[in-house]
Structures are given as structure tokens and as C-alpha cells.
Design goal:
With about 120 residues, this protein is mainly β. It has no helices and 8 strands. It has strands at about 10, 15-20, 25-35, 40, 45-55, 60-70, 80-85, 100-110.
Length: about 120
């Protein structure tokens, strides 16, 4: 298993690219979440609190700290997941839900000198 050396600093993301699966309809959706801004996927409310991406010269890896809550009508909001998800190993730390799967695809890194992100 590869590890990050202290000399390989992760790039701090300003957002995260996520993918979600609705198991009932078999639909897959890609969506972005800015850090600290909740997004909705079905009955889930997903908030990304941090996203880290290894620099291009290092082995590829993106990880995000997510909180996932379920908001159902007439029921209290329930925290379903709080922790790090890793793009390279989505099953390592996964959301356990009967209807939805959500996983990290990439961190969105904005370069101050350009309008592009990646």
C-alpha cells in the first residue's frame, strides 16, 4: 500500500466531485459540492468539509471529509455518515444506505491564475 510522504503535500480542494447511485431507479448522477455548502441528492444532504488531492507527480488520490444526513418528511434529520471517503478505494469508508450510494470522484482545485479547475 502506498503512503504519502511528508514531502508530498496534498493540494487543498475548494470543492469535491461526487457520484451518486439511486439503487431504486439505477440512475447514476455526478454532482459537485463546494466546501461547507450542503448539496442534496435524493433525501440525502451532503456537506463536504475538506478535500485533499495529491499533486500530479504523486500517485493519484483524492479524499474528502463528508457528512451525510437524511432528511425525510415528518422525521428528524439523521446523521448517516461522517468521515473520510477516498476516490481510489470507495468501499474502504462507504455510506451504508438502502437506497443511495455516494462516493468521491475527485477534488476540485482552482488555480488562482486561471479560470479552469481540475
Amino acid at each position: 500500500m502506498a503512503s504519502w510522504s511528508s514531502e508530498t503535500l496534498a493540494l487543498e480542494g475548494r470543492g469535491v466531485l461526487l457520484q451518486g447511485l439511486d439503487k431504486v431507479t439505477a440512475r447514476i448522477s455526478k454532482f459537485s459540492a463546494s466546501i461547507g455548502v450542503p448539496v442534496t441528492f435524493g433525501t440525502l444532504e451532503i456537506t463536504a468539509w475538506a478535500c485533499h488531492k495529491k499533486p500530479p507527480e504523486a500517485p493519484p488520490e483524492s479524499s474528502a471529509f463528508l457528512e451525510v444526513r437524511e432528511k425525510q418528511e415528518g422525521a428528524p434529520i439523521e446523521l448517516l455518515f461522517s468521515g473520510w471517503m477516498f476516490a481510489s478505494t470507495p468501499g474502504l469508508s462507504a455510506l451504508q444506505h438502502p437506497v443511495y450510494d455516494v462516493w468521491v470522484l475527485d477534488c476540485k482545485i482552482w488555480d488562482e491564475n486561471s479560470d479552469s479547475n481540475g
